[in-house]
Amino acid sequence: MQPASVLGWLRRSWKWLLLLAVAGVAVARVKFAPVPVAAVPVRLDTIVAEVMGTGTLEARVKTTLSPRIQERLAEVLVDQGDTVQSGQLLARLDAGELERQLAVAKATLDAVKASLARTRADEERALAVQEQARLTHDRALALRATQIAAQADVDKAIELRQVADAEVNRARAAIAEAELQVITAERNLAFHRERLGFTQLTSPYDGLVVRRDRDPGGVVVPGSSVLHVISTNELWVSAWVDETAMADLAPDQPARVVFRSLPDTPFPGRVARLGREADRETREFLVDVRVEQLPANWAVGQRAEVFIETGRRTAVPVIPQRWVVWRGRESGVFVDVQGKAQWRAVRLGLQGRDLVEVTEGLAENDRVVAPLGARAKPLQAGQRVKVPTDDTGPRAGGR
Asked: For residue 12, what pLDDT is reported?
């Protein structure tokens, strides 16, 4: 191409060439411009590893008060929310018929006792007659030996003694029968007295009435619920925990309890016991966490989350757990090295709720970076990065 032609073409195309140059510069600036990132220095801190479970507040000791006999409910003396003492009368059944039965049982006992006294008097009379018959018999034998008494007198004396012996035996048999009747009457009286006691429903321990199911007037049957009472000596959250955490749990571990009514206020707790059966569908098992302090308002059955402490380390390097980048099974982070993102493989230690311990790969005050924004692309090794001057803290991934 001749110089004149080139100049002519340049004169005709200079606008397009200028546009392409501007576009190229813009693309280069966009491509090679520093990526805005959030940065956080590696710092020494305390990290706590926790296992989380969800459950409900329960009382270790709880009782459903129900009658042992069928009768009309005459009176309920407490309501839900009332505190009760051991042995306190809580409800009463109609006792009219049972009191009459008890009175009949008492009268029967008195009657059989009187009969026993009469048979013992009969025994004393029979013994006296027996002694007299024995004397008469001995005297007749002595007179017969001297030929003074006739044989007929001796035979009569023998007969009288035999009759007296029989009367004594009869009296003693009557006494034995009367004593058995007394025992039967006493047991019958005890039975009716016990049944009369069934008309009173008392508290088995110091506690709290959490539910009232019946009101006076209706007939209640054995097993039907009248009141629900719990002991407030020990309340715990029965929480379902994934079975994968089983090896890390043990009784007496400290815990935090967060009730859904107060999500920002944790309450202290401690592991009381571990369940020994896992749910075959959810693969979770129960862990009972004793609540050492309760909120002002609480209810049995309310939902709560427990966070059981399984490990604690102090003054160890930590970074936000969400900033860890995984390449297959290898964990690592991006570190700001002179304005460029540098991949650094790290070894992780104890994992907490938000932080993770770094045992190898980072030094204190290394700046770990992560892209800003929920839709930001992942960082690449060697990519230029810049922390915005208005960045006030870790917000990687839009969090």
From this structure: 60
Residue 277 burial (10 A CB sphere; 0-12, 13-18, 19+): exposed
Q: What is the DSSP letter of 265?
A: -
Q: What CATH number has the domain spanning 51-59+232-310?
A: 2.40.30.170
pLDDT in tens, 205-254: 999 999 999 999 999 999 999 999 999 999 999 999 999 999 999 999 99
Q: What is the DSSP string of 41-104?
A: E-EEEEEEEEEEEEEEEEESSEEEE--SS-EEEEEE---TT-EE-TT-EEEEE--HHHHHHHHH
pLDDT at 395 over 50: no
Give me the residue spans of the domains in the chain. Answer: 51-59+232-310, 62-93+199-229, 96-197
Arch. (CATH architecture) of 62-93+199-229: Beta Barrel (2.40)
Whether the Cβ atoms of residue 58 and residue 77 lie closer than 8 Å to each other? no
What is the four-CA torsion angle of 272, 277, 282, 284, rounded to 10 degrees? 30
Token pair for 178: 């009367």
Give this prediction's pTM: 0.65
Report d(CA 232, CA 45) in Å as an integer. Answer: 39
